[in-house]
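Request: How about a record?
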Amino acid sequence: MMDQRAELPPRQQIADLEQAAEHIRTARRILVMGCSGGGKSTLSLKIAKRFGLSYISLDRDVFWLPGWVVRDRVEQRNIIASRILEERWIMDGTNPSSLDIRLPRTDFVVWVRMPRLLCIWGAISRWAKWIGRTRPEMAPSCIEKVDFEFLRFIWTFEEKFAPRLVAGIAAHGPDVPVLQLKSRRQMRELLDLLGRPD
């Protein structure tokens, strides 16, 4: 199966990493999205630390209750609606259904758009690292896990979810600049440009 990608309009894409780094330096609210296993949480935490932004994890703070129990959808939206009112944040999470309330408050989007095999490797290696434990960016008692359903979600992400993200950005954030990171090298270069935390 070919990895055919839904694409954003060229005018909205930031391709130059130095230009993207400048956007991140001046942004008050940044949305980081992408497929599981791509590295968006790691990137978000590093940017949050570097610029003193409040770190909001959709997985930890919105979707999941302890023990992998899904929070009520209305309550999810209420939490997001409350958190986006904060002045400075970086929000780690994809969820196309909440782009309508998140994007209008977002200054810059980083789409971690790694190849799916790299995402699968990322998810499996993360599971191996955290086996039997809960990652800091997850809700309490959500022990790290990998199953067939999760791997299938990653494998089909570009086909099923990327078009929804492109449509959501077009509808709710047509003027928000977007950086797409498509390799680990690009991610490392961006972090190098942003510098280390003070």
User: Anything to note?
Assistant: The mean pLDDT is 93. The domain at 15-194 is CATH 3.40.50.300 (Rossmann fold). The two ends are 45 Å apart (CA to CA).
